[in-house]
Protein: FAD/NAD(P)-binding oxidoreductase
Amino acid sequence: MKKLLILGAGTAGTMMLNKLDKKLDKKEWEITIIDKDDTHYYQPGFLFIPFGIYKPKDVVKSRKEFFPAGTHFIIDEVDKINGDDNKVILKSGEVLTYDVLIVATGTTPVPSETEGLMGPLWYKDIFDFYTFEGASLLAKKLENWKGGKLVINLAETTIKCPVAPLEFAFLADAYFTEKGIRDKVEINYVTPLSGAFTKPIATKMLSQLMEKKNIHVVPDFYLEHVDNDLKKIVSYDGMEVEFDLLVSIPTNMGADMVANSNMSDEDDLNFIPTNKETLQHKQHENIFVIGDATNLPTSKAGSVTHFEGEILIENILSFINGKPLEAKFDGHANCFIETGFGKAALIDFNYTTEPLPGQFPIPVLGPMGLLKETRINHMGKLAFKWIYWHMLLTGKSLPVSTNMSMTGKKAPKKEENKEKEEPQQEEVLL
Structure:
């Protein structure tokens, strides 16, 4: 019996488990999936918890609920991978062998990477919302907060769901407006980027929206430490921003087992060097990497994981059958951006094409608008929760093309966007 191991039972791991269960001969292959517990979080829902749109119970289910019948599930933590010997060592000491390995161990906020972030004010006046605990505690804080200086700060640029901090700012504007205290809240969006987003067309649209909502953007701010005594964040070049309430997006890192396995990329953030088209590990041909665990120059988002999954299932089947890996991932990402008051924007892009205006997925008809605030985009964002539980996790195909399409997009003329003439192959598009 040949063995296929999946490390991580989050979005990517569960999705691949369901896809492979349908494709592999069970008389020939044994599939095992490993994770530290049986709790699956709908992470896109963390954004809504602080504002009371979702309750904490709305985003939690058992992992097993989404596994095919008869799945071999091990609850344990992975200590390291020995890629030369095709072995995985668990924290319990158990050693597992494999013929094919899929790494889907994701990324996690690590606030301890920044001096002072987890100081005396942590979970008193400093919160995150990328974790279940942080989002739940922040909801309680906002219920009774009377106003002041709200600072939303990105510690690094490589984070999961890169549009979520923007969404938090927009939803905060709506939340405090509806509570009748918006005039008592100063919202500052402090980012290491040179603007609200990474690329010029999206940045222009989002910056105008920030200005319209009286959200002040502080660009080029590289967080060095947090001063708990004076309640301010300080950058490496000495810039300071005061806060009464700090909502932090801490440094994101891959799993510790990546470092233990000597598989981390050159930035030492525990992301795994991965072939950006085939999703194959760069040193071990029988190891494949998917989702936030990769070091690919695209967004760490659920939509990316879905598109990668469509490519990866083809390539794993080709690898097993001794055929060339011909399916190519183009970096496709598709993200809704909640903008508050029942509206949202939508962006669609890949490794080489930045978010552009237009209609999606059908030209002229849409019904969704790219880089445009609409109510139907908002409905699409809310509908994604059902799609996530019932289609994405269970490995079903979605009615969106795997590779990005230019259909319906309005590409700028060269003289309108000279930056597009520059090479973008290895640039990270959030």
